[in-house]
Design a protein that fits this description.
Elements lengths: L12 H12 L6 E4 L2 H8 L6 E5 L4 E6 L3 H7 L4 E5 L3 H11 L14 E5 L6 H10 L4 E5 L3 H7 L3 H24 L6 H14 L4 E2 L4 E4 L19 E7 L1 E3 L2 E2 L2 E7 L4 H20 L6 H14 L11 E3 L6 E5 L12 E4 L2 E4 L3 E4 L2 E5 L4 E3 L11
Helix pairs in contact: 4-5, 7-8, 9-10
The protein binds zinc ion (ZN) (2 copies).
Amino acid sequence: MPQAVALPTTMDHKGRVKRLQGSLDEAEIDFLLITHLANIRYLTGFTGSSAVVLVDEQRCIIFTDGRYRSQAQEEVKGPKIMIASKSPLIAAAEWLQRSPAARAPRSKGKSFLSVGIESESMSAAALDRVAAQLKGKARLRSAPQFIERARMVKDAAEIGRIRQAVELGASLFKVALKKIRPGVPEVEVAGAMEYAARCAGADGMSFPTILASGTRSAIIHGRASQARIPARGFVVCDFGVILAGYCSDRTRTFHVGKPAADARYLYYAVLEAQQAAIEAVRPGATAADVDAAARSVLKRRKLDRYFTHSTGHGLGLEIHEAPRLALGQAQKLESGMVITIEPGAYIPGKWGVRIEDVVLVTSTGCEVLTPTDKELVVI
Ligand code: ZN
Ligand code: ZN
């Protein structure tokens, strides 16, 4: 059983708010209304599930409800905390409507407030309510993804946390290896890993654990089911933990029983594709370049048509963040980005293989976080 993890240093919330405030003027936004909880956590450290943040050039105010009064006081240092008796979103809109501090900048010749919203995280109903509340006072518009862009490049404290999450995740494969035997239900393996993760201090899992054995290994997102592990075939094991808010994500594919020649061929083709993609990771390379590196290996092996998802994704406070490593993605990689590299090949009705690691883009290339042996493990 992995040991409980000692948690690392505090985050630079103050600096993050300051940098955000510095970008509002150019985008002609007087107030940014932040509704995406991961962005709220990134900016303020608040971990509750009900909050809205308003930011202008001078202020940062967090609105939450009474359930989170003491938690907000404990977690949020700097921003003003407002406890709403109703929905935090409506409280924020009311504040904008009523507060003398929320004035249209007449120096810029405007008679209304320009309020940026995070349209990806706001429902049409919520938008209607806010718009009704602010009628005549403010104009709402979709804001640029300032915070998502900032979150793409991790700072040292974040990298430290991701490193620990990945390390914990990697250690749990030992639990899986002990449990995977013919006849054992997939959920028992997943359950043992999840139990060990919680005991070691994980907040939870990054996503429902994927444990797909036999022909189910051909399902890309085969969540652990009641199916029993067959006497022979692949077992795809893809899971992540959340540790102090930060996600890990790793896939290993094991083989139960002696692998046939075509099973070994498939496994080593995917491994070669994964290594080629890892080698392509460096600052200045595009997300599409890395995807192409994996895809071209599988093409040479005549397996490219079985590789039907993207090569990877950013991760951090959320399991899927920018950038996305896929065809046509022009986003350039930068030092400090943390991404997964996870090519796979899935032959419907037969079997599938995926191999995934988390890598940190460095100034000269990349570092695989917690590298482990990737030779085919036969159980
Ligand atoms: Zn994964
Ligand atoms: Zn992934």
